[in-house]
Amino acid sequence: MTDIEHYAYRVVWSAEDGEFVATVAEFPSLSWLHADQTEALRGLVDLVADVVADLEANGEPVPEPIAERRFSGRFNVRVPESLHRELALSAAQEGVSLNRLISDRLARS
Fold it and tell me: How large is the C-alpha radius of gyration of the chain?
């Protein structure tokens, strides 16, 4: 059984809608609008509970909460050759590995 409270919920004001919109990262197609911020979140949590129950009842996969996923710390990124060259040069000038340079820059952004 999935703990729906562990999902990555977010509530923001939508000027376009004139209400708060609640979203959840693990279910990008779901959202809930309400004039009250707390009610927007409550509505979405209830909706997610219904969707998860339906998925489980039908034997379909249920997204694992991002907060509970294990990450290796590794990912591959394809960049243009010119950017790769520029980054490698910067790393050499700073006396660090390319991996370290990019990791530091990502952490600062």
Answer: 20
Architecture of domain 72-108: Orthogonal Bundle (1.10)
Q: Which fold has domain 4-67?
A: Double Stranded RNA Binding Domain (3.30.160)
Give percent above pLDDT 70 in the chain. 99
Instruction: Over range 77-89, report the average pLDDT.
Output: 96
Q: Count other C-beta atoms under 10 Å from residue 61's C-beta.
A: 7
CA distances from 85 to 79, 81, 92, 102 (A): 10, 6, 11, 13
* Separation between Cα atoms, residue 43 and residue 27, nearest integer Å: 14
Question: What confidence score (pLDDT) does residue 2 get?
Answer: 75
Q: For the residues 97-103, what does the mean pLDDT come to?
A: 95
Q: How far apart are CA 66 and CA 7, in angstroms?
A: 7
Asked if residue 1 has pLDDT above 90, the reply is no
- Extents of the domains making up the chain: 4-67, 72-108
42's tokens:
């409550």
